[in-house]
Amino acid sequence: RYGQHPRRMSKRLELIEKVIAAGSKDPFHHYARAMELRALARTEEALEAFDGVARDFPSYVPTYLMSAQIALELGDLARARRQADAGIVCARAAGDDHAVSELEALRARA
Length: 110
Hints:
Layout: H1 11-21, H2 27-39, H3 43-56, H4 62-73, H5 77-94, H6 97-109
């Protein structure tokens, strides 16, 4: 698929995956893995990884914006709206007004 590089790897991704494989339950490690996949242009894998963070760590606010951005980039507007909506709820519960405003702005574009 154009724009996908399934074999691209970085030392950072290797390290993060080792930490996760060792049993890390820190949401940042899982989020960082998704971000690194995105940086490597492994977009669909990154989206799946962000979905995993949202599933396993539903109160981890940053994942929703990144997931919604990728879905929007891929033209999946319904998915972008769902992620933005879930993120808005999560961010409001966390009292994160900045994240709410970013997610609302993204939601308006989806």
